[in-house]
Write a structure and sequence with these properties.
By secondary structure, the protein is α+β, with helices and mostly antiparallel strands. It is built from three helices and 14 strands. The strands form three sheets. It has an eight-stranded antiparallel sheet with strand order 1-2-11-7-14-5-4-3, covered by helices on one side. The protein has a four-stranded antiparallel sheet with strand order 6-12-9-10, with no helix packed on it. It has a two-stranded antiparallel ribbon with strand order 8-13. Bound molecules: 2-oxoglutaric acid and fe (ii) ion. GO terms for molecular function: iron ion binding; L-ascorbic acid binding; procollagen-proline 4-dioxygenase activity.
Length: 197
């Protein structure tokens, strides 16, 4: 699993970085698809994140061969059966847009947990790929472990949202810092405890 990735040294969290996971040409193909489908997060909100996420989001079309190939590539790299994956999501952050501090897991016992986790269970691993480099800003910050990851075209970032005992790991708290200049494109892939659907 995660061959060629660097583990960020921290006892608190399993976080891996793999530079050049995706070639620049492949990144550009996905950027074009995000541009074709993006919508403001405020309107068609996922999971009630409107106040936290001001970027534009989109579900990528799983029937598109380019998207399907990337999805398969990520699942193979993570060594997780594709059935456990949520659909690939794209994000575009323009100047001033961000995703404030949050965790990707759902608070156990909270209302969202019942709603979004009844069938597939909790989120397990997160994988994300930076598809470009904004001119300024847009880093991903893990405050608890004091780690800032800079966007770099094709760089994959993956972390385990759970601790060794399987409970959600608060040290995964992270934020997408504001883009100061240019635009930032990423895709995110979340995996679940059980098949997605
Ligand atoms: O864009 C980023 O740097 C982080 C995105 C993120 O945290 C998410 O989509 O859950
Ligand atoms: Fe996140």
């Amino acid at each position: 699993m995660l061959e060629g990735a660097q583990k960020v040294p921290s006892p608190k969290l399993d976080l891996y970085i793999c530079r050049r996971f995706l070639a620049p040409e492949a990144c550009a193909e996905i950027v074009a698809r995000i541009d074709a489908r993006r919508r403001p997060s405020e309107i068609a909100d996922d999971l009630g994140y409107a106040a936290y996420r001001t970027s534009e989001t989109c579900d990528l079309d799983g029937n598109d061969p380019v998207v399907a190939a990337l999805n398969a590539q990520i699942c193979a790299y993570m060594d997780i059966d594709a059935a456990f994956g949520e659909p690939l999501q794209g994000q575009r952050y323009g100047v001033g847009q961000e995703f404030k501090q949050h965790t990707d897991y759902f608070e156990p016992g909270g209302p969202d947990y019942a709603r979004y986790c009844a069938v597939p269970g909790q989120r397990t691993w997160t994988a994300m790929i930076y598809l470009n480099e904004p001119a300024a800003g847009g880093a991903t910050r893990f405050k608890v472990i004091d780690k800032i990851v800079q966007p770099e075209t094709g760089k994959l970032l993956a972390w385990n949202n759970r601790r060794a005992d399987g409970t959600p790991n608060p040290a995964t708290l992270h934020a997408a810092l504001k883009v100061r200049s240019g635009a930032k494109y990423v895709i995110t892939k979340w995996f679940r405890e059980r098949p997605w659907g």
